[in-house]
Amino acid sequence: MGQPSPARTTKDTWWRSAVIYQVYVRSFADGDGDGTGDLAGVRAGLPYLAELGVDALWFNPWYPSPMADGGYDVSDYRAVDPAFGTLAEAEKLIAEAAESGIRTLVDIVPNHVSDQHPWFRAALAAGPGSPERDLFHFRPGRGAHGELPPNDWPSQFAGSTEPVWTRLPDGDWYLHLFTPEQPDLNWAHPAVRQEHEEVLRFWFERGVAGVRIDSAALLVKDPDLPDFVEGRDPHPFVDRDELHDIYRSWRAVADAYDGIFVGEVWLPDSERFARYLRPDELHTAFNFSFLSCPWDARELRRSIDETLAEHAPVGAPATWVLCNHDVTRTVTRYGRADTAFAFATKAFGTPADLVLGTRRARAAALLSLALPGAAYLYQGEELGLPEAEIPRERIQDPMHFRSGGADPGRDGCRVPLPWVARAPHAGFGSCEEPWLPQPAGWGAYAADLQAQDPGSMLSLYRTALSIRPELGEGPLAWLPAPDGVLAFTRGERAVCVVNLADAPADLPAHSRLLVGSGPLDTDGRLPKDTAVWLRTGT
Predict the structure, then answer these.
(1) Are strands 530-535 and 210-213 parallel, antiparallel or unpaired?
(2) CA–CA separation, 75 vs 361, rounded Å?
(3) Which residues are catalytic?
(4) Cis ω on the peptide bond leading into residue 128 (within 30° of 0)?
(5) I need a surface site. Which of 8, 133, 442, 493 has the fewest CB within 10 A?
(6) What pLDDT does residue 159 have?
(7) Residue 395 and residue 404 in contact, taking contact as beta carbons nearer than 8 Å
(8) What is the pLDDT of residues 444-490, one digit of tens each?
(9) Residue 445 to residues 66, 113, 352, 382, 455: CA-CA distances in angstroms?
(10) Cβ(535)–Cβ(493) below 8 Å
(11) Percent of the chain residues past pLDDT 70, beyond the cut
């Protein structure tokens, strides 16, 4: 197990430029044949991940959970869900990954727990007014008989019309910004803060290098629980100032182990976003502006410029991500008429040109990996997987059900990975049926086929990740380019050019083409929806 490191003047800064691979364990690989991905499957996949060239693995929650929300309803933070393996196996995975030069990040969900968590079960048993209920947000209802919820706060599931309060038979209501199975914790209670700091130490002592913080801006609530008024500042439950004291305490814990944090912080205000990245708070936070940006040169440049500008005052590195376990797969999104991402616009049956989407996704991969900072790669993106349309009767995501069936949910980007083209279930496992169905033809994306094809998406990612260190640590500097073309340097020796214009683009002077998302035309120009990395020196 890891031990707290002594005070040091120079911290390891690997995280400032790392490529971090997101593992959704349930869908990575099934090692025991029960239809659900597990830690045994990930351990078997470590050689693949090492060959891919990633620096770290971020695991979605692997803790015991009733799976009301894909594992983001945690019942015990000091154990591993039996469907995935054991704590001992997690420790082996962390150690084996480290032997391959790969660090591990775990996911913490501090806003809420499962309704099966011992704290919440004790609160239900103790009754109204009990100390056990002080760990959550229990309140009497409004109305003559307490029949109305304590306030009108909106759900954090896009499109949901369901209330965020649930009434118990004893008359009390409890708050849950997500599902009723995910009661919100009361972060004004010292026991909640103490417990989470102990959980952080528990995992740092088992060798993890960092922690991803789910819904990082939602923890603290206005103690008066007032009704929601659009535009009123401060917000009653988003980005409240009290959060920063919590994260300063967490930073002290992480620093003792040389650990790092990455926050899930969805905020439109760049100045307030940057506050989370001050030197004594979080190390990094996800860049949702870039993730949701359309395939448009002006919009992408604006997102890049704004991202770098908002990080600069606090000296934090930017993060770049094209997809994750909550959003539409890149190949599908970039093949649609609307290439932006927004939860509110998700709908069944949205057409996509997957050939076009794949070409753009290849170019976007080189763009994102060339930008200064850290890059996050969601499992299956390196295989060019499209979004799967899950049959309605097989959908499991609560976002679908809480939208009244209008939202297709997030299961389409969580389909089990294809490993071996000719094996049952494309090599995911020896099970009778995976937990989510794989579409027809899924084996065509299998890793074993792509590993043999130098023109595959997998080969592109492997090449780009092996070359990426040659781009250097220099800042981004834009080069003159025609409308629709993005061109920039990283230091003095490398240039990235991405053509989103209709016409082919001339390349700047260079000594060598390092890697391209597609071939140049017969005149040596860069075709539409294509990107290249160039060496400019000798």
Answers:
(1) unpaired
(2) 37
(3) 214, 264
(4) no
(5) 8
(6) 60
(7) no
(8) 999 999 999 999 999 999 999 999 999 988 899 999 999 999 999 99
(9) 31, 36, 17, 10, 13
(10) yes
(11) 97
3-state secondary structure of 84: coil
Could you tell me the CA-to-CA distances from 232 to 237, 422, 472 in Å, in that order? 11, 57, 44
- Tokens, residue 192: 């909640």
> pLDDT value at position 330?
98
- β-sheet bridge partners, residue 247: none
Residue 231, both tokens: 């535009």
- In this prediction the pTM is 0.95
What string of DSSP letters covers 281-297?
Answer: S-SEE--HHHHH--S-H
Q: For residue 292, give every residue at least 6 positions away whose Cβ sits within 8 Å of its Cβ, in sequence order, or none.
A: 327, 340, 341, 342
Q: What is the DSSP letter of 112?
A: B
CB 60 within 8 A of CB 107: yes
CB 289 within 8 A of CB 303: yes
The sign of the torsion formed by the CA atoms of 79, 80, 86, 87 equals: negative
Residue 8 has pLDDT above 60, yes or no: no
Given pLDDT bands bounded at 50, 70 and 90, which one contains residue 11? low
d(CA 63, CA 87): 9
Angle between helices 243-257 and 190-204 (to 10 degrees): 30
DSSP per-residue letters across 146-162:
S-B-S--PPPSSTT--S
What are the tokens at 61?
């929650």
The CA–CA distances, whole Å, from 260 to 94, 208, 247, 284 equal 16, 9, 12, 8
pLDDT in tens, 370-429: 999 999 999 999 999 999 999 999 999 988 988 889 999 999 999 999 999 999 999 999
Nearest to 461 by CA among 525, 339, 375, 389: 375
Based on C-alpha coordinates, what's the Rg of the chain?
Answer: 23
* Cα 363 → chain centroid: 21
pLDDT at 145: 96
C-alpha 22/C-alpha 105 separation (Å) is: 9
**Measured distance CA(239)–CA(233) in Å, rounded:** 10
Q: Look at the block and give the residue holding tokens 């480290």.
A: 98
Are 239 and 189 within 8 A, CB to CB? no
